[in-house]
Design a protein that fits this description.
ABC transporter involved in vitamin B12 uptake, BtuC, mainly alpha, 78% helix, single chain, globular, 13 helices, 283 residues
């Protein structure tokens, strides 16, 4: 039973993390290749505060705050760059984060930090908390996508210059997307730290950023349901197929390539096309 609970918790945290990137990349069209750094900020913030004696649940808002502030800083630095240059900039942030925590003893350097404090929740309760937060994030994402803000995000992703001509404050909306997405990544990081009880720099490197981007692309960029399903499935693949753990970057990179080449809309678009084809065949 413990294994199933742990697996469900992992799936919920992955769904939350993937939806956080979907708000930036899927809704606003801002490609990020260093999103795992914000997961790491949340994880280290929550983990270190818990070790200092602060109750776990109180550390989650702080994890969101620190990650969101860093997201705004990165967003400010990225306002003048787009597309490939934005991807390279965010990738640099990811490498910078890993480099900093590896060199600082306060973060446990290469060994990372272990968390032995009791979160005050049993494993089933922690799983339910993770699932509830993932579900709340999905509902929030759906709301954002359908409201006026989501429409502005989508317009920026489609044609940023036209949106500027219309008098809309594009930098403000870009920063808003980065702030919300990175804050939610920090929330996922706080859960991640307490779930694994051990956090180390390698857990937040480039491979993890590619992994979460793969979840978004495979599910369908901008699709809340598609990304949630994709994240849930891809997060447990290494547990079901052990060899994937050894070739994680190759497998997820391959999935990215295949989806971008044959189904840019991800599984969501593929399912729609198949259903339409079957419907026409039935007629």
């Amino acid at each position: 039973m413990d294994y199933e609970i742990s697996l469900a918790t992992t799936m919920a945290i992955s769904v939350l993390f993937a939806l956080s990137l979907n708000l930036i990349t899927g809704f606003c069209g801002q490609i990020s290749l260093g999103h795992a750094a914000f997961l790491g900020v949340g994880a280290y913030t929550s983990g270190m505060l818990v070790k200092a004696g602060i109750p776990f649940l109180l550390t989650l808002p702080l994890a969101m705050l620190f990650s969101g502030v860093l997201g705004i800083v990165v967003g400010l630095a990225s306002l003048r760059v787009r597309a490939d240059f934005l991807a390279i900039t965010t990738m640099g942030v990811g490498f910078l984060f890993v480099g900093v925590v590896r060199q600082q003893e306060i973060f446990g350097a290469e060994m990372g930090i272990s968390i032995v404090a009791d979160p005050g929740l049993s494993k089933p309760e922690f799983m339910l908390l993770s699932v509830a937060l993932a579900a709340a994030t999905a509902l929030f994402s759906t709301y954002v996508r359908r409201c006026w803000m989501g429409r502005v995000f989508g317009a920026i992703g489609e044609d940023e210059d036209t949106v500027r001509v219309l008098g809309i404050d594009v930098p403000l909306f870009k920063l808003t997307a980065f702030a919300i997405g990175t804050a939610l990544a920090g929330l996922a990081g706080g859960l991640y730290a307490q779930h694994l009880k051990l956090i180390a720099p390698d857990s937040f490197g480039f491979i993890e950023s590619v992994t979460v981007l793969s979840m978004v692309v495979v599910g369908g960029i901008g699709s809340v349901t598609g990304v949630a399903i994709s994240a849930a499935v891809l997060s447990v693949l290494p547990s079901w197929f052990q060899f994937i753990g050894d070739y994680k970057l190759l497998v997820y990179g391959g999935l990215l390539f295949l989806m971008m080449r044959f189904s840019p809309g991800g599984m969501a678009a593929l399912v729609i096309r198949l259903s339409r084809s079957l419907g026409k065949g039935a007629k």
